[in-house]
Design goal:
Largest sheet: 5 strands, mixed
CATH topology of the largest domain: Uracil-DNA Glycosylase, subunit E
Shape: elongated
Distance between the termini: 80 Å
Number of helices: 11
Number of strands: 7
CATH architecture of the largest domain: 3-Layer(aba) Sandwich
Helix content: 40-55%
Structural class: alpha/beta
Radius of gyration: 21 Å
Length: about 280
């Protein structure tokens, strides 16, 4: 009995040790990212040559290099530990890399994958995507001239709302997906996506376009209709890319009365970026 108890104790200690090392690794990873964000380019210690944080992380900003694009983006997403969602991540929806060489007219962005989206490995249900295709056709945008992606790549536990830190931490993956593709516009679909879009606008250089009461709110549920706020804002951008919002195709299917205002949203987008 004592031998069995000792074996169990050793096994528990090993599990705790492994977990501790894993937590330490994640903390170090995040610390190195923070050093980069605050401008510390070199790390050094007595007797150890100076090494840049980006070299230690083996990453660089997507605005500086094309190493982010292509098949490597999926590996980076699957091995990202920049927020708490990494601890519960089982899988992600892979980014399609076959069109990376083509310019984009519209980047269509949803909030985050839910359990159903992960099961079908697609952010939109077939009927929703079919309606989206018709919407894009009405704008004379071909299927290879837009992409459907998400602000956040990991599923939040129990499909809860995305937190501010989680949303901002995932920003680099969207930037890498758009890098070098001359994207003309970003279109947020649905209330949740609009709420996350406003977070990014509030944390970009274009904060003068934010409506009063929006900046500083971290919980999308605390907003009174983020989609209505964003739909009626003028000259809104995420960095340099014009940002628009409209209703999710699923909402349009179940609430036909929303189709008219959705078409008005699409016409504003078309006019703004010069589509014919």
């Amino acid at each position: 009995m004592n031998s069995e108890s000792n074996d169990e104790s050793i096994e528990c200690m090993e599990e705790r040790l492994v977990q501790g090392v894993d937590d330490l690794t994640h903390s170090l990873w995040n610390a190195l990212h923070e050093l980069q964000d605050f401008g510390f380019q070199e790390l050094s210690k007595d007797g150890i040559p100076k090494t840049s944080a980006s070299q230690l992380l083996k990453i660089t900003s997507p605005t500086e290099t094309q190493e982010w694009v292509g098949e490597d983006i999926n590996s980076r997403i699957e091995n990202c530990y920049d927020c708490a969602l990494a601890k519960t991540r089982e899988r992600c929806i892979p980014v399609s890399t076959d069109s990376f060489a083509r310019p984009l007219k519209i980047c269509i962005v949803l909030d985050a994958p839910d359990c159903i989206a992960l099961e079908r490995q697609s952010l939109l249900a077939p009927n929703s995507f079919a309606l989206l295709l018709r919407m894009m056709k009405a704008l004379n945008v071909a299927e290879d001239e837009f992409i459907v992606t998400s602000w956040v790549r990991c599923r939040p536990p129990n499909d809860r709302d995305v937190a501010l830190q989680e949303n901002l931490a995932c920003r680099k993956h969207l930037e890498s997906e758009l890098y070098g593709r001359d994207c003309k516009s970003i279109l947020a679909l649905g209330e949740r996506s609009a709420a996350l879009a406003l977070m990014h606008v509030a944390n970009s250089k274009n904060t003068q376009t934010i409506a009063p009461g929006i900046v500083g709110r971290e919980d999308p549920r605390s907003r009174l209709s983020s989609i209505e706020t964003l739909r009626h804002m003028v000259d809104v951008k995420v960095d340099t890319i014009p940002l628009f919002a409209t209703f999710h195709p699923e909402d349009l299917i179940h609430r036909p009365e929303l189709k008219k205002p959705a078409w008005e949203d699409l016409k504003r987008l078309r006019s703004s970026i010069g589509l014919r």
